[in-house]
Each structure stands twice: as C-alpha cells, then as structure tokens.
Amino acid sequence: MSPEAIALVMFAGMIVLMLTGQRIFAMIGAVAAASALALYGNSAAELPFNAVFKLFSWYALLTLPLFIFMGHMMAKSGIAEDLYRMMHVWCGKLPGGLAMGTIFLMVIISAINGLSVAGLAIGSAIALPEMLRRGYDKVLITGVVQGGSTLGILLPPSVVMVLFSVIARQPVSELWLAGVLPGLMMAAVFAIYVYVRVKLNPSLAPKLSDEELNMPLREKILLLKAGIAPVVIFLLMIGLFVMGYTNLLESSAVGATAATVAAAWKRRLNFKLLVEAAHETMSVTAMFMWIVLGALAFSAVFDGIGAVRAIENIFIHNWELSPWAVIILMQLSFIVMGMFLDDTAMLVIVAPLYIPLVQRLDLGIDHQMAWFGILYTITCQIAYVTPPFGYNLFLMRGMAPKEITLIDIYRSIIPFALMMVLCIVLLMIFPQIATWLPSYFRG
Amino acid sequence: MKSLVQGYIRVMDGLAEWIGRFAMCLIYVMIAVLLFDVFSDKALGKVQNWTLETAQFTLAAFYFLAGPKTLKDEGHVRLDLIYSHLSPRGRAIIDSITIWIVIFYLGVLLWGGISSLHYSWITNQRLPSLWAPSLVPIKVLMNVCIALMILQCIAIFFRDVLRIREGDAR
Amino acid sequence: RAQAPIRWRLQTYAGPSLGEHVIKRQVDAFNAAANGEMEIELYYADQLVPTSELFRALQNGTLDAIQSDEATMAAPVDISVFGGYFPFASRFSPDVGAMFMYYGLDEIWKEAYADIENVTYLSTGAWDPLHIFTVNKPIRSLADLNGLRVFGVPTAGRFLSRYGLIPVTVPWDDVEVALRTGDLDGVAWCGFTEMYAMGWADICKYALANSITGAWFGSYYVNTQSWEKVPPHLQQLYRSTIDQSHYYRLIWYWGGEAKLRVEGEKMELTEIPSQEWAQVVKDAQSFWDEVAQESPRAARVVEIFKKYASDMEKAGYPYR
Ligand code: NA
Ligand code: NA
C-alpha cells in the first residue's frame, strides 16, 4: 500500500471507531497500536507506551494541571460574584448592559484562567439566572455566555496555546502576547453585536429599574474593589512571565497559589474545596493526557509512513495551491474536524502534518507561527461551541438553568460562531492585530 | 455467578476510587515542588536540578493513577453524534463490544510497558541528566496502573452485560 | 529481478536542520547507490521513538539502525560516559579518529557492545567541539564562570561545576526562550556551527574561544538481525557511506568552526588567560581519574586518553 492509502485507512478507521461512541482516547490509541503492529511487527509493541516518554521533553504540559486547578479555584473563590455585582451596577443602565457586562466579565475571567470551563461555569451559574430573571432574551444571553467563555483560550493564559506551542516548538510567551489583541477584538465584536441587536429590538433586553441601580456613589466606587484580586493575580502570573522574571512553569505554580490565596482571602477556602479542586484537576488532566498519549502514538505511526510528505505533495505539487490557499484550506479543515473531534486530539494528529508546511510557506508575516497559532485557537473556539461535538455544548447542557432548552443552546451559538469566523478573516487581512504585540515586546 | 460478577465490579470500583483519592493529592505535591523551585531559585539563589524531573514524574503518576477512576467515572470524552440517540440498552450493547477495543489498546500499552520496564531493569536505565533518576520506579507504577485499567474495563464490560440481561428479563 | 527492496528505518539523535548535514547526505547517497535493492528511511530526533528510548528501539527491532552519542541515549555500556562530550578527551577533531585507529579505542568499543544482545556496533566519528556561549556575561577569567546558569551536556556540567558554574536542566526546546528571558545565562552544548544553525547565536553575544573538548564521539549501531539480512555488498556500501559521512562531517565542522570564529559577526570571542586554562586542563585529569574508578573498561579508556595526550605533547608542533 502507498503511504497515502495507509494514511487514509488509518484516518477512516479512527473516525469509524470514534463514531461508535466509545472513549476517544482509546479509539485513537487502538488504531495507532494496530497499525504499528501491522506495519512494523511485534517489535513495535513499545511504540504506544513510548509516547509517555516523548511527553517528558514537553515540559510546558506540566502547566496543564496547574492552570486547570487555578481555573477551578478561581471559579469557586467568590471573585466572580463580586465582579458580577460590580458589572451589574456599572453596566446595568446601558441598552443590553447586563449582556455586554457579561462579555466584559468573561474577558476578566479569561485573563486569569486558561480554559473556557471556568467562564462557562461562572456565566451559567451567576450571570444567566440574573439576566433571565430580568427578562433578557434567553437565546441571546446563552450565546453570550457560550461565546464569551471561549475567550478563555484566546486571552492569556491559555492551555490551548500551551499545547500548540509545545507541538509547534514556539515560545508560549509569543503566542500569549499574540492572543491579547485578537481576544479583545473578538470581545468588542461580541459587544457590538449585542448592542446592535438590542438597539434594533429593545425587547431582547428590558431596562433595569432605577431603584435597583440606585445606590450612593461611594458604594458604587467601593464595588470596583472587586477588580483588585483579578488584576493582582494577572500581574503575578502573566506580568512576571512576559517580563521574563518567571518561566512558564513557575508562573503557573504562582497562579495556582494566588487563586488559592484569593479563595482564602474571601473566606471560601476549606477542606472540601481543596478536595473538590484536586478531584476536578485530576479528572480533566487525565482526560487531556490520555488523549495526548493516544494521539501521539497515532502521529508517530503517521510520521513513520511519510504522511507529512504525502500531504505536502498533494497541497503544493498536485493541487498547485498558493500559500494563502493552503492556509485557508487548513482553517477550513480545522473547522470541519473541530465539529467532530476533540480539539486536543485534532491538534496532536493534524499539527505534525500542518506545522512543518506552514513554516515553509512564505506569507511575508513576521511571527508567522504565532499568528497561525491564533488562527488555530479561534478554530478551537468554534469547535467548542459547534455541534455535534463541543465541550461548551456538553457543559452548557449540564450547567444551564432549566428554562434553557437544547434548541435554545444550538440556536444561540450560530451568530457567535459566525463572528469567530469573521475574526479569522480579519486576522488574515490584518495579521498585525496578532503580530504587533509580540513584535513590540520581542522585536 | 451473578453475585460473583457483582462482587468483582464492587472490588474494582472500590480499588479505582481508593487509588484515585490518593492520586488527587499529587496536584498539591506538584504545586509544592514548583513553589520550592521558585523560592529556592529566586529567594535563595540556589538552582535545584531535581525539581523539574520530579514534577514530570509526578504528572505521569497523576494521570496514570487517575486512569482506573476516570474510566469508572465516565471521565473520558466520547463522540456522541450517534451514541447520544441510542437507548441505555443500545449503548450497553455497543459498549460491551467496543470496550474490547479499549482493552486491546491498553493491552498493547501493557505489553510494551512490561518490555520497556524489563529493559530499564536489566540496564539500570536513567534519565540522561544531571540528576539522572532511575526510570524503573515510574515504569513499575505505569504498568500497575495500566493493568488496573484493563481490570476496570472488564468490570465495565460486566456491568454492560448485566444491564443488557436486565433489559432482556423485563 | 522483481524482488522487493530491503527497507530500513534509521533514526538519528539530530533534528531536521542539523540532520541535513550529519546524516541526510549519507542516507541519500546510500539509497542512490543501492539502486533499488535497499532503501533507508531516515527519521529525525524523537520522530518515531523518543531519544531516551533510541537504543532500546534498536535492540528490539523497531529501528534497524541508529546514529547517536552514547550519553544522550544512555547506552547500557560501561563506557557510555565517554560518548558525547567528555571534558578534554580531545583537542582537535582528528584526535578522535586517531585514538580509535592507533590507540585501540575501537577494540574497547567493539568489546563493550559485543556483550549487548542484538546490537552491532559499527563505527565512531568526530563531531563538533564544545564551547561556552553566554548571552551578556563575557567570560574572560575562570572567576567569570562562578554563578553562571548554563544549559549543557551533563558530563561537562558536572566537571565545570567545580568552578562555580551552575548546570541547569531545561528541555532542549525551551533553551531559546530561557536564554531570551534570562532564565539561562548561556549554553555549553555545541560549537559555533550549531550555534549559528540553531539561531542561538542571535541571542548570545559572547563566545568563549577555549574549547572544553575538541570533538565529541558519535557512533553508528545496527540491529544485528537486520544487519545479517543485508547482503555483503550492501553491508560494505553502508560502511563506506558511514566513512563518507565521517569525512564530510570532519571537514564541515573543522572548516566551518574556523570560518565562523573569523567571519561570524554575531558573537564576540573571549578567552581565558592561558595559565588559568592550563589549570583547567590539569584539573580534568583528576576528573578523568574519578571516572576511571567506575569500571575496568573505563579505566582502560582513560589510560588511552592519558597516553594519547602525552604523546601529542611529545610530538609537539603542529599536534599541540
Ligand atoms: Na485565558
Ligand atoms: Na464542535
């Protein structure tokens, strides 16, 4: 069989096995193990196991449990409730103010945690019930929480970018810097969307009564105190890291500790929370790591049959695609695959094929890999919210208040997924949005 | 027979739970090791050459020890495009077949793991670094965990079979 | 003849950019000359198996051939500490070949690997010298080594720590970032050629001209079963292309290093005063003696190093 044929069989086999609904990590791993044994004989039995030791040289992965821990601690620390109250009072008067305030809340939450789960948990537990009570349109606000929470992986710190940089061999700090402006831009696009929708149809977001927001200015200003803890955590973690005082791993440990201290300060820290945070961290870490393990074995075999060269041949030589066409095709394939696949598995399987190719493309962009990493991260955001397979969808089903139905959830994400695509287009036309900040700091 | 099978499931679940409870604490070990590393480096000016590798070993132990419990608690992601539309009994039927694919993967991992451990044992293999820790302990732990994961998968299989039988009886 | 070609999987310690010079040419030449009778597929560092498992993968047949130093892949022999950068084992790169050809290192190597099941040792050649490169702290005296945080090969790090240098463990891929962020003051991992090739020369401003060793020992190994299945004329071809690779690499590094020292503009050369450096070379002797204690075979290797060094002193110009 030709390498192309083997690659196709492996890929198709993986999709079929995954469609049975069995645990993804093992389906990927099983295809890898079976093809390794078929191609190389019994001597390849160690190949799947060896993936564990490949991970030993990817030390950025060590930050994974720490960021997961931090996100959970932070969500339970009470910081979010204070932030919500601040936002509620300060933004309540604007048209659609609570929804726009929720986007702002998501930006702050995103700046101090690396996944979208914390934002989703906070959004659906705190913001959604408040907005529903005041008659906000449930489809609109469900979309706001779903879309807004995905900013968690675009604004630093970001676990997805850690995984990308590990695989693409790029400095994480560069990617994090590159994510800042696109993240803020996306938040602005969401906010403008909400504003315009509410302006056109005020019934989507009834005004808050004046009594509710009536409070002495002194108290209003005191509410701003809620912002102190996130700013301090952000500076300790991201500031020291970007300035080069701590390395990535150290800053993730500092962040985890800072979130724990914040919980203690808010008097929320107790034995139960410590156990709960550890438990949550363990299950999410195990889920991530076992997928990485299976996918790494898969990509070793894929690499072994020369699939990278095969893909390159097809793109560049057979189809004679221009560099930009290749990039667009890659984004499309990410979006389509992201609908069905877990984003980590997608990254580990596809990245070894795409990344060498992107490195060779001459697009005339400085910090090209960081820019590509941002495009990739946005496709992950899309993947999170699109059916049939999306983390945020799964979680939303579990966490959202009763009156929000599955149909509401599915309908709510359409405009937000489209806005994310719009951001990808903007980043392709104006790569500087992503590359300006890394150039400014790193030259 | 049925009580024997139920006993097996109970023992495996208990074991997975118990090991998982222990593994949870390792996150605090990781944080402590890394904070010590930061403190020793920045405050005392002493570079520690064992902390990074210790954190790596701890992470490996963390997700391997979590293995059986994560299987038991349905902690792994599934593609539920078709799966979510099936009845509980339909899922049990499919799962009782596909779980053997999971067992196959874990079986190859165990096969390779034991072979790799054997090599580390006879050659006294160490990580090529200044600290040069032995790879034997972590490989032993990984193999034990993979074996427990296989046993857990068999418990999952039994549970599915019981579910299918109950469905038939009704 | 419609016989299917023999297919081999060869993995190197090197990544793609370096591999271009240290192995790819050889594999290409071999495949061309084998004329379809045999084909070697080349894999770079960590591609098929992680480097730490390289030797194991060769032994069990996942790989048919490897190219690496013994220290990086922790080869299970009592002489693996000498493969890779061993402080002051050589002054110039031709020293390596000379010690293997005239002083009996080749016999010791063959003997060491004869004990290992299913692995056949073929040949050893010279790679690049080991220098210390620093970001913004020039080294002009031994005292300047004190407190420097340096990423490097373990054996050299162990030796240099007696001068207060702090060997720091960082994964290879993070070295560049760590240099930029100031987490590392420098590297002691390679010579000038690779500093330029890997882009580390863009970050480091200073290069210490004194070398810790003249060249490291890199070797070729094959899986014994795979080797025995190859007909004699292709075995000979493989050996010949290895020699070709040794030759190319020797000249590429020797000439390239000098060229970059003279014409390279990215780093400023500094030197440790010769009296102080003579002390370092002398200190290395006690380090050698420590290592000689580890096994009788190690003692024999150290004996050869000593004999060779003293012979070269006696030979005088141009040898020393
Ligand atoms: Na974030
Ligand atoms: Na999706």
UniProtKB/TrEMBL annotation, chain A:
Broad class of where this protein is predominantly found: membrane
Subcellular location: Cell inner membrane
Residue ranges constituting the TRAP C4-dicarboxylate transport system permease DctM subunit domain according to the UniProt record: 11-433
Annotated TM spans: 6-39, 51-74, 94-127, 139-164, 176-196, 222-242, 286-308, 328-357, 369-389, 409-430
Function of the protein: Part of the tripartite ATP-independent periplasmic (TRAP) transport system.
Listed InterPro entries: DctM, TRAP_DctM
Protein's name in the database: TRAP transporter large permease subunit
Superkingdom of this protein's organism: Bacteria
Keywords: Cell inner membrane, Cell membrane, Membrane, Transmembrane, Transmembrane helix, Transport
Residue runs in coiled coils: none
Topology in membrane: Multi-pass membrane protein
TrEMBL record, chain B:
Entry keywords, A to Z: Cell inner membrane, Cell membrane, Membrane, Transmembrane, Transmembrane helix, Transport
Pfam families membership: DctQ
UniProt keyword Lyase, yes or no: no
Chief location bin: membrane
Top-level taxon: Bacteria
Family according to the record: Belongs to the TRAP transporter small permease family.
Function as written in the Swiss-Prot or TrEMBL entry: Part of the tripartite ATP-independent periplasmic (TRAP) transport system.
Protein name: TRAP transporter small permease protein
Lineage of origin: Bacteria, Pseudomonadati, Pseudomonadota, Alphaproteobacteria, Hyphomicrobiales
